[in-house]
Amino acid sequence: MGDEDEDGAKHSFVSTNPEYLVFGHGRHARPGRFFAANELKSMLAHVVLSYDIKLEDNATRPGSLHVGTHIVAHPTAKRAH
Questions:
Q1: Where is the signal peptide (predicted)?
Q2: Could you tell me the residue ranges of all domains in the chain?
Q3: Is 14 exposed, middle or buried (0-12, 13-18, 19+ CB in 10 A)?
């Protein structure tokens, strides 16, 4: 039980640690991180439930670009109509 709980907390979006300081850490952790996580989940749920997202016919997904620590969409990727 102990190992499973630790792994779940390690990958939680709102948990803090000194290696990932987006929401601060320790005493200075931002209380709004819980609100932000719920808003992002709500937006993703809206997209999944409201839109039919698929690749174009016979299309392959262009690879993502890695810029420093960020992963961004390939500039030649197009939005389907």
A1: none
A2: 6-72
A3: middle
Tokens of 13: 């979006």
The span from the CA of 38 to the CA of 14, in Å, is: 10
d(CA 55, CA 61): 7
CA distances in angstroms from 12 to 6, 27, 33, 57, 62, listed in the order given = 10, 18, 11, 36, 29
Paired tokens of 66: 């890695």
User: Tens digits of per-residue pLDDT, 3-14?
Assistant: 555 555 555 778
Quick: pLDDT tens for 29-45: 888 888 988 999 999 99
